[in-house]
Amino acid sequence: MPAQKYLTELHQDHREWLNILSFYEEDVESMKKRLNEVASKNTDREMHAWVERFQNKFIIQQEQIDILKHDINHCESKIIQNVEENPVASDRRKSDDHVELRERVETFEFLFNKLRKDLNSFVAKWM
Question: How many domains does the chain have?
C-alpha cells in the first residue's frame, strides 16, 4: 500500500516545492547574467562553446521547473477538489503521498546544484 499523508501535509509539501522552484527560477536568471558577463569579457572560441552549453542547460532547467510546477499544481488542484467535495474533517483525512513527485523535486535540486557548481568553476576559470 502506498504511503499516505494528511491532506494538510501534502498541501504544505506543495507550497514548499513551489517556493523552492521559484527560488531556482530566480537563480537561473542570476546565473544567466553571470554567464553573459563572462562571455562579454572573453573572445576565446572554446569559452564561447562552453557558454552555449550552459545556455542550453539553463533552458532545460527552466523547462523542468515549468513541468514540475505544472505537476505540483495539478496535484494541488486534486487536493482542493477532494476538500470541496467533502469538507468534513478534511484536516484529518489522508491521501497517497506524492513520492514520485517528491523524488523528482529532489533530483531536480541535486542536478541544479551540480549545474551551479559547474558554472561557478567555469566563471572562476574565465574571470
Answer: 1
| Rounded Cα distance, 105 and 101, in Å | 6
Burial class of 116 by CB neighbour count within 10 A (0 to 12, 13 to 18, 19+): middle
| 83: containing domain | 4-126
Task: Determine the angle formed by the axes of helices 99-126 and 45-85, rounding to 10 degrees.
Answer: 160
The residue among 11, 4, 17 whose CA lies nearest residue 102 is 17
pTM across the whole model: 0.90
Yes or no: say if 4 and 88 are a contact pair by the CB < 8 Å rule.
Answer: no
How large is the average pLDDT for residues 16-36?
A: 97
pLDDT recorded at residue 1: 63
